[in-house]
Design brief:
The chain is mainly beta. The chain folds into 2 domains: 234 residues, Beta Barrel (Porin); 48 residues, no CATH class. It contains 1 helix and 14 strands; from the N terminus they run αββββββββββββββ.
């Protein structure tokens, strides 16, 4: 019951954070909206700086600020022009190689099972959890394989936690496991929204290095173990405007991941030579971090770009 309440709390916090990310991204997009003038017949762009004053009809043929008429000109005489939102451009920050760092909040859950070695009969079973902090690094590559807004990103992350989950007995004896290092390789995939927010699902495989401990005072037995696991999760990332002045685009991300690990065994340790111990571990992790694109900042779209004209009225 306690575990379910914690998982529900984690999900609530992550969901609220995603809503906040979407709100900030939407606000930034609204304030940064740009407009372009196009020929509604051909979709060809017209330089807005040639309209005086900017965004109005220089000859006052129309009261509508979103429509202008140029009766004559050196390039396209007698054309009507309409003002439309500029089409979204895919920035260099949206694709390519990136590096980053992350803070990790971990909820580790361990079911420890003690069996009598001679008969394999269960003699004790415990469930315990702990919630330490850690940190790590991430490297990945983003691209759009289907030429749409679906972004795909293979990635690898390396987290250092030192996250012990122990069952303690009266008198100070204990048994349990300690996470030392987690490596995860997988893929993130999801839509890049117009508001500048990337929402994605996460799937991958992980490797856990942990230390198994049986401490029945006065004897302490330890054993290193490396286990494989399966990881799934969800995440969101955006590029705040105040972090874009460093020569390479910077993104902030927030993720939730859950990993199921293979069980680890510690048989007949010196601290308890008549028993075998099995440790089944799962981890719930919330990650907050940043990534830096190794691509240069996006270039301005070429002036010859053709825009899709709006429907004629």
């Amino acid at each position: 019951m306690g575990r379910r309440l914690f998982l529900r709390s984690i999900g609530t916090v992550v969901s609220c954070a995603f809503v906040a990310l979407a709100f900030v991204a939407s606000s930034q997009t609204a304030s940064a909206q740009t407009y372009c003038w196009i020929n509604p017949q051909t979709g060809a762009p017209y330089p807005p700086q040639n309209l005086v004053p900017l965004g109005t009809d220089p000859f006052q043929y129309h009261a509508d600020p979103n429509h202008a008429h140029i009766p004559s000109g050196p390039t396209v005489p007698g054309s009507d022009w309409v003002r439309v939102p500029c089409p979204p451009t895919q920035s260099a920050a949206s694709t390519g190689l990136y590096l980053g760092g992350e803070l990790v909040k971990n909820w580790g859950w361990v079911r420890s099972t003690e069996r009598f070695a001679a008969t394999d009969m269960i003699t004790n079973q415990f469930s315990d959890w702990a919630d330490p902090f850690g940190g790590g690094v991430i490297v990945g590559y983003k691209f759009t394989p289907w030429a749409n807004n679906i972004m795909v990103s293979p990635f690898a992350s390396f987290d250092f936690l030192h996250a012990p989950v122990n069952h303690t007995f009266p008198g100070g004896s204990f048994l349990g496991t300690t996470d030392n290092f987690i490596g995860t390789g997988g893929v993130k995939i999801g839509p890049q929204l117009d508001m500048g927010l990337w929402l994605y699902g996460i799937a991958g495989v992980s490797v856990l290095n942990e230390t198994l401990k049986i401490n029945f005072i006065p004897v302490l037995s330890t054993q290193s173990a490396t286990e494989a696991g399966a990881t799934v999760g969800v995440g969101g990332a955006m590029q705040p405007a105040f972090l874009q002045g460093f020569g390479h685009p910077v993104s902030l991300f927030l993720e939730y991941q859950h990993t199921w690990w293979q069980s680890a065994n510690f048989n007949t340790p010196a601290a308890s030579p008549l028993f075998n111990y099995n440790f089944a571990r799962q981890d719930d992790v919330v990650k907050f971090g940043f990534t830096v694109s190794l691509n240069p900042p996006p270039a301005s779209p070429p002036s010859s770009m053709v825009y899709k004209a709006p429907p004629s009225k």
